[in-house]
Design brief:
The complex is a heterodimer of chains A (490) and B (353). Chain A is 34% helix and 18% strand. In chain A, helix 9 packs across helix 11 and helix 13 packs antiparallel against helix 14 (396-413). Among the domains of chain A are: 3-96, 2-Layer Sandwich (Uridine Diphospho-n-acetylenolpyruvylglucosamine Reductase, domain 2), CATH 3.30.43; 103-220, Uridine Diphospho-n-acetylenolpyruvylglucosamine Reductase, domain 3, CATH 3.30.465; 224-332, Alpha-Beta Plaits (2-Layer Sandwich), CATH 3.30.70.2190. In chain A, 59% of the residues are buried. Chain A has 490 residues and is α+β, with helices and mostly antiparallel strands. Chain B is built from 10 helices and 17 strands. An 8-stranded antiparallel sheet of chain B has the order 13-10-12-11-15-16-14-17, sandwiched between helices. In chain B, strands 3-4-8-6-7 form a 5-stranded antiparallel sheet. Chain B has a two-stranded parallel sheet with strand order 1-2. The two termini of chain B are 40 Å apart. Classes of the chains: A alpha+beta (490), B alpha+beta (353). The interface between A and B is large, with 93 and 88 residues.
Chain lengths: 490, 353
């Protein structure tokens, strides 16, 4: 289908005004500009039309119209995603769900909150705070990111080793299919009959349906939370300490690692009191009843010391604990100040391969002449190497993508995955061919078609065409040819 | 390893070409509950073994025919366990069957269900293709989550041949407390406590007694017991095991037993006959003579669903179709994974309608 077959911006705008107010339809370049990229700003595409519905009925009207006209639809939450999942489609409607932001119901006894997709992650916790409850998944972007986006990406955060991902913390979804049909899946009961559509929809990156309501589970706030900050002379020692701790039967509430580049950047940014001379810093949190925390902290300290920690500091009070975490949560923007651009990777590996993988990344960093800072969820083996580069220097972005591709391939090689929590989006679509075989990718296409036979929802994202895999062979080959609207649809 | 898988793939391929339905068989421990009627059996019982286990990763990969008891013993030797305490319902229960059934035990509300701990699967689809989804790491969002889709699908979407599970460390000690209360009071309390940070890992209410299991370091349990009150139950371990394996007298009744998964805050259902409450109020076992329509309607009203546990039809265990477009989505998915409709035909019970 070429662009001439799609109605013009003005035609679409005019048609949609039957159901949506004028202020909810953006057709001019100036008004659409803020939507041309999400959190992965290296990729940009001006959308054909942007719509901002405020009710489910309006969303339904948009979908029905687009379905009838064969117009692609890309859903967008807060636009903080890091894999280009909300990158617009050149001929498509960008469907922002940011105006569906009501907290519909809070039930403290049942420990559930029913919200519209545009509600911010942190706003859920704020809504139940007075009841001593909170929403566990806490991506670093939790101040801004929306629950709808969290569902689309199956977002994690620093506490997911103990408390799970989005998938483990949501009970029900109300979604619209591309034809505008309402489907209710999951339940407030502990299980449902039939296939597990909750698992299938969570993390489906806007390819299967549009979420219009989410019922989340909230859990009691722990009585006590304590964090230890441990310094190490080598990254390997810190990695070993992580593996030993898990093997010893401890599930920390958070277990995060930063290398020296990331530590120094974070310290300059938030002045959390980080040990800037350490080669690696571990933040290790225990929460629960005071007796549990006391017991766990003692065991954690022993293991950290046995594995060569040069300094251990337990946050003295809540203010200091929050400061320790503030540095970690601000690590991306902090590292971002070191270079004009950075590229964030999201591979996950078995924990026992941490030391080895970090060494290889360090070697490649020298080989490519690109600095790499490492910030990651050590407890669950989810790496976030940040490659520093300057998009203004010709060829450097290409080099960066190539290095990123090699790191992701290494993750698959050691038994891991190309994305732990950021999603495939447009960014890692080629690496999908490395991780999955043809038959599996064919099944993914089958699932897509089971929901959206015309392939109108977020086309070209998350699942590569078999043709693309065959042509690309190994990934990075075609990276330089990626102006994304040309991605073939399925 | 592939050598032993190939005959299974070949059998499915031939069945696909001949459009001959297959009944997937593990240990048969849950066939009283769910069992396809296809005459030809695809037997997984010889496809056994631990593929990979690294305790420091909290991850284990097992072939589907492995006995559940073998896996649990291995984990126990390493101070670990399956978080969801799956009911075996027979010594011959297999790991593959456990995942296909998706049934969880007493710890479900505290730790999560089977599907929450499945990280990856290897499976044969309805065309005999050997497929792998998910992986061996805790966080993985590449591709649609097919692994968890297999949990509780009773083999209707594929033949599980290998599963990768996240495991957890065993708690150092446990303590069971008991109170005499009315059902309404017990339900209220279960829900209130679930909203407070107590180390509660199981709860039940039966014959006027609320029981709660606490787990963690001894000092924490003693401190919690001081706040919660109640009296200690010495045979606590036996109670929870009996509940998990359905060996309590309650399950021996000749009356039909219904399993009702409901919103945990739902008050007493008021059905005549005995009720056993589990999972903080989220699961109600009811032994009663009420008609199907009444029980299903009551479960729906309580935000959940009902399943006849004893005395039902194993060939059509879930006869109630989901509402509206969700039924079509079930049928579409079935076609993706099993285009000829040969895998456990009739399951889960409403597809053919």
């Amino acid at each position: 289908m070429d662009k001439s077959e799609i109605p013009s911006e003005l035609e679409i705008g005019q048609a949609l005004r039957q159901w949506l107010p004028e202020s909810a339809i953006l057709t001019t370049p100036e008004s659409k500009r803020p939507y041309e990229t999400d959190g992965l700003s290296a990729y940009r595409q001006m959308p054909h039309v942007v719509v901002l519905p405020a009710t489910e009925k309006e969303v339904q009207a948009v979908l029905r119209y687009c379905h009838a006209q064969c117009i692609p639809v890309v859903a967008r939450g807060a636009g903080t995603g890091l894999s280009g999942g909300a990158l617009p489609h050149e001929r498509g409607v960008l469907l922002s769900l940011a105006r569906l932001r009501n907290i519909v119901q809070v039930d403290p006894l049942a420990r559930t909150v029913r919200v519209q997709p545009g509600v911010r992650n942190l706003a859920i916790t704020q809504a139940v705070d007075a009841h001593g409850l909170y929403y566990a998944p806490d991506p670093s972007s939790q101040i801004a990111c929306s629950i709808g986006g969290n569902v689309a990406e199956n977002s994690g955060g620093v506490h997911c080793l103990k408390y799970g991902l989005t998938l483990h913390n949501i009970l029900r979804l109300r979604v619209l299919t591309m034809t505008g049909e309402v489907v209710e899946i999951g339940s407030e009961a502990p299980d449902s009959a039939g296939f597990d559509f909750m698992a299938l929809l969570t993390g489906s990156e806007g390819l299967l349906a549009i979420v219009t309501e989410v019922t989340v589970k909230v859990i009691p706030k722990p009585r006590v939370s304590k964090v230890i900050m441990a310094s190490f002379d080598t990254v390997e020692q810190a990695g070993d300490a992580v593996a030993r701790m898990i093997a010893a039967g401890i599930i920390p509430a958070g277990l995060e690692m930063m290398d020296s580049l990331a530590t120094r950047a974070a310290e300059d940014f938030v002045h959390a009191g980080y040990p800037v001379e350490a080669a690696a810093v571990l933040l290790c949190e225990s929460d629960g009843m005071p007796e549990v925390v006391e017991d766990e902290l003692a065991r954690m300290k022993t293991i950290l010391e046995e594995n060569g920690a040069t300094e251990l500091r337990v946050a003295r009070d809540e203010a200091e604990r929050l400061r320790f975490w503030a540095g970690r949560k601000a690590a991306f923007p902090a590292v971002g100040r070191l270079a004009p651009d950075y590229y964030c990777i999201d591979g996950t590996i078995p924990r026992r391969r941490l030391g080895e993988v970090l060494r290889r990344i360090a070697d490649w960093s020298l080989e490519y002449g690109l600095e790499v800072a490492n910030v990651f969820h050590a407890g669950d083996g989810n790496l976030h190497p940040l490659i520093l580069y300057d998009a203004g220097i010709p060829g450097q972005f290409h080099k960066t993508e190539e290095l990123a591709g090699r790191i992701l391939e290494l993750c698959v090689e050691v038994g891991g995955t190309i994305t732990g929590e950021h999603g495939v989006g447009v960014e890692k679509i080629n690496q999908m061919c490395v991780q999955f075989g043809e038959d599996e990718i064919a099944v993914f296409h089958g699932i897509k078609a089971a929901f959206d036979p015309e392939g109108l929802l977020n086309p070209g994202k998350a699942i590569p065409t078999l043709q693309r895999c065959a042509e690309g062979g190994r990934m990075h080959v075609h990276h330089n040819q990626l102006p994304h609207p040309e991605l073939s649809r399925f | 390893m592939h050598g032993e898988l190939e005959p299974l793939c070949a059998q499915v391929r031939q069945a696909y070409e001949a459009k001959r339905p297959l009944r997937i068989r593990g240990g048969g421990s849950k066939s009283f509950l769910v069992c396809s009627v296809a005459p030809e059996v695809l037997d997984l019982r010889l496809y056994t073994g631990i593929v990979e286990y690294e305790p420091s990763e909290l991850v284990v990969t097992v072939r589907a025919g492995t006995l559940l008891i073998t896996l649990e013993r291995l984990l126990e030797e390493n101070g670990q366990m399956l978080a969801f305490e799956p009911p075996h319902l027979g010594l011959q229960a297999t790991v593959g069957g456990m995942v296909a059934a998706g049934l969880s035990g007493p710890r479900r509300m505290a730790q999560g269900a089977v599907r929450d701990f499945v990280l990856g699967v290897r499976m044969i689809d309805g065309q005999g293709r050997d497929l792998s989804f998910g992986g061996r790491v805790i966080k993985n969002v590449a591709g649609f989550d097919v692994s968890r889709l297999m949990v509780g699908a009773w083999g209707a979407l594929g033949v599980l041949t290998e599963v990768t599970l996240k495991v957890i460390p065993r708690a150092s000690s446990q303590l069971t407390l008991e109170w005499s209360l009315s059902e309404a009071q017990a339900l209220q309390r279960m829900n209130e406590w679930a909203g407070q940070p107590w180390p509660i890992t199981a709860s039940s209410y039966f014959q006027g007694r609320l029981r709660v299991r606490l787990e963690g370091p001894r000092k924490a349990l003693e401190s919690a017991a001081v706040h919660l009150g109640g009296k200690e139950v010495l045979e606590g371990k036996g109670w929870w095991m009996g509940l998990r394996e359905q060996q309590l007298d309650f399950f021996m009744t000749p009356k039909p037993i219904w399993r009702m998964a409901v919103r945990p805050t739902t008050g007493p259902l008021g059905l005549s006959g005995q009720t056993l409450v589990e999972w903080g109020g989220g699961l109600r076992w009811v032994a009663c003579d009420h008609g199907h329509a009444q029980v299903h309607a009551m479960a729906r009203e309580a935000g959940g669903h009902a399943q006849q546990w004893h005395g039902g039809d194993p060939a059509r265990p879930f006869p109630e179709p989901p509402a509206g477009a969700l039924l079509d989505l079930h049928r579409n998915l079935k076609k993706v994974f099993d285009p000829a409709g040969i895998l456990n035909p009739g399951l889960p019970g409403f597809l053919e309608g």
